[in-house]
Amino acid sequence: MIEVPDFGNKGSTAPVRRRTGHDPISAVKMPEGLTAAIDGWAEAHQLSRSEAICKLVELGLKISPAPPASAHPIASDATRIEEIAVHEIEGLLDPALPTDERERRIRRLTEGPPEFLHERIDLPKQQT
Questions:
Q1: What would the DSSP string read from start to end of 67-108?
Q2: Contact (Cβ atoms closer than 8 angstroms) between residue 82 and residue 110
Q3: Quick one: 52 exposed, middle or buried, by C-beta within 10 A (0-12, 13-18, 19+)?
Q4: In 80-114, which positions are buried (b, 16+ CB within 10 angstroms) versus exposed (e)?
Q5: How far apart are the first and last CA of the chain?
Q6: Distance (Å, rounded) from C-alpha 128 to C-alpha 117?
């Protein structure tokens, strides 16, 4: 007599996975609007929803990634803000002032008084 193992043993807690030769199933949670858009794309390309999702993911992965964001976006924003401030200060200063006095006043307003330089968090700490 030939014995056949009992795969449906009631005492077993692990589910039995049969090898079918197909790719494993992956569940994806998507908003209804996105599902409807995928269904529309699938219908236009005569694909099932599953095939359409696979194809769209493959297409998305082939696109070159966007360049990484600047490591210091705050620094570039600060520079831009300083440029705007200098422009506004120049408009407020008396045009009759000598150039070196205008530059000194602008520098003092944008950098602050020298006695507070050690308090500035946006400037590198000076070695003492």
A1: PPPPS-HHHHHHHHHHHHHHHHHHHHS-TTS-HHHHHHHHHH
A2: yes
A3: buried
A4: eeeeeeeeebeeeeeeeeeeeebeebbeeeeeeee
A5: 93
A6: 13
* 16 alpha carbon, distance to own chain's centre: 41
pLDDT of residue 40: 93
Low-confidence ranges of the chain (pLDDT < 50): none
What per-residue confidence (pLDDT) applies to 17?
62
Task: Give residue-wise pLDDT tens across range 24-54.
Answer: 778 888 899 999 999 999 999 999 998 999 9
Phi-psi region of 39 (alpha: psi -120 to 50; beta: other; left: phi over 0): alpha
Whole-model pTM over 0.85: no
